[in-house]
Amino acid sequence: MFQAFLIKYGEIGVKGKNRYVFEDALVTRMKQVLYHVDGTFQISKEQGRIYVEAEGAFDYDETVAALQRAFGIVGICPVVIVENDGFENLAARVVDYMRNMYGDQKKTFKVMTRRANKSYPMESMEVNAALGERILDAFPNMSVDVHHPDIMLHVELRTKINIYSEVIPGPGGMPLGTNGRSMLLLSGGIDSPVAGYMVAKRGVYIDATYFHAPPYTSERAKQKVVDLAKKVARYTGPIKLHVINFTDIQMYIYDQCPHEELTIIMRRYMMRIAQKIAEDTGCLALITGESIGQVASQTVASLAATNDVCHLPVFRPLIAFDKEDIVTIAKKIDTYETSILPYEDCCTTFVAKHPVTRPRIDLIRRSERALEEKIEEMVAEALATEEIIEIR
Ligand code: ATP
Ligand code: MG
């Protein structure tokens, strides 16, 4: 029944003169998500509206699912577009529409006409009343409720006429590419994929860095991170995944530093290295999946100690989230099942029995001095031997 969708977008409507930048970014993203869907689509911008029109047969469910991954879309309205060829024809089309959508169910409705085309010969109130009457005549089980109707029937009088009553929720957020690029520290856990998704939802392109420590972490653990990146990329677009071999650095810290400070010092080196890659690749900020109090390395004092080595902004979108709420999002974006696969990550291999929970930054800095001799060289080596995996 539907060959087209009317796309509603929220916040981007209020960006004044830059509005077209946001609209263009949204259209670009819509083309990307629709690229893999069965069907040929035309996307057009008209009078502050974006339409998707399918040429010939297409997979409706896949189309809707794809559009639900394009940040910036607030609502996806399957729309019937008809010629503006007189009220009688319009009324017939509207009655057809109602029959196809709802049969003669016992439902209440309201007609909402918008007269964008000011030369239309009837006022919108007149159209509401006249169409309402035709619907009541055609479907004896239906009745009008202007306050809380089951069906809100939108009739938009434009060059052509748009008829729709269903608004399928979109993902919200801002179109990708309207807010630069940031570097996600991506582990195999539940949190960091969700963190990346959340920041991307605000229009930020994502690249990722993963620290692995072979042979302490397996190829399967790395593959799991690649799989997670693929799932996240369905929403965020292509991700460049930088895989850093962290083994030597980790061993060196293990040998030289107090074991209860191991995790914090390791995390400081992860941040330093990710920050270096970020700067070299044009990323404006770092993203982590940290959340206050979740583990010893995420107490407020530990976060402060980790943050001490960062000069780029660090986005921690999950900072005040409970695990349960993070899991809900992980399930929604389909990363959860992959995240809970049991492969070890490099933090679990080297955890101390009693890690510090209130690290003092001055003491941590002092402990790091034991690394002075070789660490810079090792970091340079880790950067020089990075593996880059293009995730699409
Ligand atoms: P997650 O579920 O995201 O793994 P977590 O609860 O296991 O988080 P930590 O292991 O303390 O917490 O890691 C905190 C954050 O540090 C992660 O959310 C992630 O952003 C980053 N991180 C941890 N381990 C790695 C790694 N091996 N490679 C890249 N980033 C990592
Ligand atoms: Mg982890």
Label this structure with key terms.
VC0802-like; 392 residues; binds adenosine-5'-triphosphate; Rossmann fold; nine-stranded mixed sheet; 2 domains; 14 helices
The span between the termini is 33 Å
Name every ligand kind in the structure.
adenosine-5'-triphosphate, magnesium ion
CATH superfamily of the largest domain: HUPs
Q: Count of helical segments?
A: 14
Domain count = 2
User: What is the radius of gyration computed over CA atoms, rounded to a whole number of angstroms?
Assistant: 27 Å
**Under the CATH scheme, which architecture of the largest domain would be assigned?**
3-Layer(aba) Sandwich
For the sheet with most strands, the description reads: 9 strands, mixed
Report the helical percentage. Answer: 25-40%
Flag low-confidence runs: none
Number of strands: 15
**CATH fold name of the largest domain, please?**
Rossmann fold
Quaternary structure state of the chains depicted: single chain
Beta-strand percentage range:
15-25%
Structure description:
- The protein has 392 residues and is an alpha/beta fold.
- It folds into two domains: 4-169, VC0802-like (2-Layer Sandwich), CATH 3.30.2130; 181-391, HUPs (Rossmann fold, 3-Layer(aba) Sandwich).
- Helices cover 40% and strands 21% of the residues.
- It has 14 helices and 15 strands.
- It has helices at residues 19-34, 60-67, 87-102, 124-138, 191-200, 219-236, 247-256, 262-280, 300-307, 323-332, 336-339, 346-349, 361-368, 375-384, and strands at residues 4-9, 40-46, 49-55, 73-82, 108-115, 143-144, 151-157, 161-164, 168-169, 181-185, 205-212, 239-245, 286-287, 314-315, 387-391.
- The strands form two sheets. Strands 1, 2, 3, 4, 5, 6, 7, 8 and 9 form a nine-stranded mixed β-sheet that branches.
- The model has no long low-confidence stretch (mean pLDDT 94).
- Adenosine-5'-triphosphate is lined by residues 185-187, 189-192, 209-211, 270, 288-290, 294-295, 297-298, 345-347.
